[in-house]
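PROTEIN DATA CARD
Card holder: ABC transporter substrate-binding protein
Chain length: 401
Origin: Thalassorhabdomicrobium marinisediminis
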Amino acid sequence: MPRSLSTALITGLFALAALPAAAQDDSLCGGIGAAGQWLGGEEGASDLATAPDYLEQMALVLMQNEYVGLFTVSEAGAYRIEAQGRGGGDTVLDLRNAAGELVASDDDSGGDAASRIETDLAAGTYCAALRSFDGTPLTGFLRAGRSEHEALTPGFEMGTPDDTGGCDMANAQALALGEPAQNPWRDQRYYRLSLDAPTSVTFTAENESADPILTLYDSNGGWLAENDDFDGLNSRIDMVEPLAAGDYCIAISTYGDETAAITVTAKAYDPLEVQRNLYDRGEASPPLDGAYPVTDLGELQTRQREDLTATGTAAWYAFEVTQPGLVLVEAIAQGYGDPLLTMYDDLGRQVGYNDDSMNSLDSQLTVRVQAGTYLVAVKQVDSAASGPIRLLFERYVPAQP
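Structure generated from the sequence above:
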């Protein structure tokens, strides 16, 4: 039988684990839009294409969760989405379409640890998810508008060797789809991609020692997209809407080692790969149909322990809960390690996230649950790390009068 807690303790834990009430379609944006807030107060007032000015909300991010702002676009065009923390908060901003596909992601392009996405959007509904880079509580602002609206952030200027900005197409190395190029930043900063037909493209710049920043321009030097720190310190841009036939310039900058070789790749956008990468990073819950490996723990009883060797790729566990209560999950490093825990319900909504609990590198979640299926992902914060982790699952029910 599950353990019982006193009424006072269970009430306190329930309050700590509580999340905003779901207010939207459970499937919106892959599930993250379910508890999102319309930036204009309601759906009808949240169309960026017709809004007389930018739309903005104050965002409060607690307990390693994220704040999700919703908006619509009735006309395709250029739009800007920004997030800025208060008191030195370091924001991370993810933009997803109604199907849950990642349209763009950014960490520091707003300047001063703020986030800024400027991109062309097709008509549709979008979710802007704001989280804290280091998982600490964050208060800030989330703003979305057209390019002519006042910006929230100062922006981050990418520089050419003579600091004139833009992209140097004349000195750009040619890229072919699916064929990586590898050079230190000090030797090669620009790459050129030529498309013969409209194509959806994924661009990546990889080497965490170099901490690359990736920016995409059209043939006229027009800014299209930018990303820093998409996967660890690596960068990625997914152009879901097909790029027109023509030439494109990719500019690389760096916050890290200028002599480290950066691998730059342009390849055809693969939505299945994008979804699997989300599962690998623990940023979305996988299906339970066997298409992705998930360890089934069955019905969760009083106490259950699991040992694993955790890496930078998330390991997934599923369990059943038969009645309302609390679930406690701990990830304890056996020796050196820095585990991270994320928990989802059966609809794919994130209900818990934790790193570094109780003044240690270990993680702990305390989540209020209803009857149903839940999934937990555990991974090392350092994508290159590997080490033994002990998982503890405990289930509690409210004390009966």
